[in-house]
Write a structure and sequence with these properties.
Helices cover 66% and strands 0% of the residues. Helix 8 crosses helix 9. The protein starts with a helix and ends in a 5-residue tail after the last helix. It has helices at residues 3-7, 11-18, 22-44, 47-63, 74-93, 121-129, 133-144, 149-156, 160-180. The longest helix is centred in the first third of the chain and has 23 residues, at 22-44. The chain contains nine helices and no strands. With 185 residues, the chain is mostly helical.
Amino acid sequence: MSLKATAHIHADLIEQCRQGDRNAHYRLYKLYAKAMYNIGFRIVNSRAEAEDVLQESFISAFRNLHYYRGDASFGSWLKRIVVNKAITAIQKRKAERFPEQEDFDVSEPIEQEAREFPFSVEAVKEAIMKLPDGYRAVLSLYLLEGYDHAEIAEILGITESTSKSQFNRSKIKLREILEGGRYER
């Protein structure tokens, strides 16, 4: 399937939504709700907040559907809305904030020799949810959602070097949580 065909996979359904068809809205929601909820949850780490992010994202998407040009898949467009809404939710918490500015760049540590990873997938998921909001957001956007540091910096309103340092710190903190909790397979 070509990229153009992929981008327009739900073109008819989207057009029906633009014309105000409530049934089409519901069908489009059902197609994307679970995946978008999971993206929001990985960032906000709260079921209730992820549900709010999901609802706000779909409301925003449906209200702004006339801005969707179809040059990317609808899922990609919607994912960007979900990520932005989730980041806004984190910023509203005010409990933990990103550093205002960091004037240093933390380089990627040199990878050690490959060795067996002693932690289960569930243990890693639990540990990720224990990370501070800023660390979890950058880690999720980079590793799970596939954004690069320049894109993360733009999304979060931080510098690229801050994104890199938050990512490196999140990996260190994640390891501390895993090793401290004795999460073995």
